[in-house]
Amino acid sequence: MYSESTPLSKVLGKREATKFRTARDITTVGDLLGYWPRRYQSPESNLAAATIGSYIVAVAEVKSATTRTMKARRGRMLQAVITDGTKDLEITFFSAHGHEGKLLPGTRALFAGKVSSFNNRLQLAHPGYSLLSDLDRGERRDLIPIYRAVGNLHTWTVTECVRMVLDLLDETPEAIPEQVLDRRDLMDRTSALRGIHTPESMKEVAAARRRMSYEEAFVLQVALAQRRARQSQESTLARVPRPGGLLDAFDARLPFELTSGQRDVGETLAAEMARDVPMHRLLQGEVGSGKTVVALRAMLTAVDSGGQAALLAPTEVLAAQHHRSITAMLGDLAEGGMLGGSEIGTRVTLLTGSMPTASRRKALLDIASGDAGIVIGTHALIQEHVSFQDLALVVVDEQHRFGVEQRDALRGKATHPPHVLVMTATPIPRTVAMTVFGDMETSTLSELPAGRAPITTHVVPEDRPGWLQRTWERVAEEVAQGRQAYVVCPRIGDDDEPDADTEIFDADPSRGVVADGDDGDDGDDGGPDDPTEEEAPPPRPLASVHRVHADLVANPALAGLRVEILHGRLAAEEKDAVMREFAAGDIDVLVSTTVIEVGVDVPNASIMVVMDADCFGVSQLHQLRGRVGRGGLPGLCLLVHPGVGEAPHERLDAVAATTDGFELSRIDLRQRREGDILGSSQHGVRSQLQFLHVLEDEELIEAAREDALEVVSEDADLSGHPRLAALVAARVDAEQAAYLERG
Ligand code: ADP
Ligand code: MG
Question: Which residue range or ranges hold the Helicase C-terminal domain (predicted)?
Answer without folding.
Answer: 499-675
